[in-house]
Write a structure and sequence with these properties.
By secondary structure, the chain is mainly alpha-helical. The radius of gyration is 21 Å and the shape is elongated. Bound molecules: protoporphyrin IX containing FE (2 copies).
């Protein structure tokens, strides 16, 4: 049987996992510690206590400026995700890997279920990458503000199925690791023996 955990496969998986987890982390920070809504309130009240009154609008500008360098990481991880997608396409073209849809068609039973989950995971990641890229370049592409706003809502909404498939994947890998004891996680890091 040919080896599954080849160096290129592990590099592809590492880049994809790092970028997706990184992208999710930037969203988590944007919605919590670096949320402009709560930080604008803190800035306004703290400055008022020090005797400086600023408008809610000015506080919002400052809060968004504090968040900006962190959000740049959304785009840095997006580039890493793009590299991992390009690598996977290269692997398919050079027959070092197959399209997830082909794996679903070829397998049966539990294997089909696993392959189906990977297909959904890959499809969701691809949708996030495409919608995010169009969103990023919307002005350059001449896309209307209304369409860009709907696309942003869609991009944000799609994060929910993505989180579900990522959680299912990690739970499935851990289950596999602890039931079959094949050392699948170690193989993903160090390769097939
Ligand atoms: C957001 C993070 C992650 C993403 C997007 C992701 C994505 C994927 C995808 C799409 C596959 C299927 C590969 C194929 O087509 O052959 C896969 C396989 C695998 N992943 Fe992940 N992964 C992530 C995190 C992790 C983590 C944290 C671990 C370790 C705990 C892990 C361990 C594995 C293993 C062992 C396989 C091979 C499973 C098998 O073929 O039975 N992944 N991953
Ligand atoms: C796993 C992948 C991704 C996830 C989970 C994700 C999640 C999100 C979320 C939740 C938002 C809305 C944030 C808010 O308004 O509160 C957002 C915005 C955005 N994302 Fe992503 N994203 C991903 C990938 C990408 C990629 C690959 C790009 C490509 C450049 C991208 C570009 C953008 C852009 C341009 C915005 C709008 C930012 C703004 O209006 O300030 N995203 N993303």
């Amino acid at each position: 049987m040919s080896k599954q955990f080849t160096p290129i496969y592990r590099i592809w998986h590492g880049l994809m996992a790092l970028s997706v987890l990184g992208l999710l982390a930037t969203v988590l920070l944007r919605k919590t510690f670096l949320s402009w809504r709560s930080n604008a309130e803190i800035i306004q009240t703290q400055l008022a206590q020090l005797g400086t009154d600023i408008t809610a609008e000015s506080a919002k500008v400052v809060a968004k400026a504090i968040r900006a360098p962190m959000w740049e990481w959304h785009y840095t991880f997006a580039v890493i995700l793009g590299i991992s997608i390009a690598l996977r396409i290269y692997m398919v073209v050079t027959k070092q890997s197959e399209l997830p849809i082909i794996t679903v068609m070829k397998t049966t039973g539990m294997q089909k279920l696993k392959a189906g989950t990977y297909l959904l995971l890959c499809a969701t990641i691809l949708i996030m990458a495409l919608s995010g890229t169009v969103l990023y370049f919307h002005e350059f592409l001449g896309i209307s503000k209304t369409f860009a706003e709907s696309l942003k809502d869609f991009h944000e909404w799609m994060m929910q199925p993505l989180i579900l498939f990522v959680v299912m994947h990690i739970a499935g890998v851990l289950r596999h690791e602890f039931t079959t004891k094949e050392g699948i996680i170690s193989k993903m890091i160090h390769g097939d023996p």
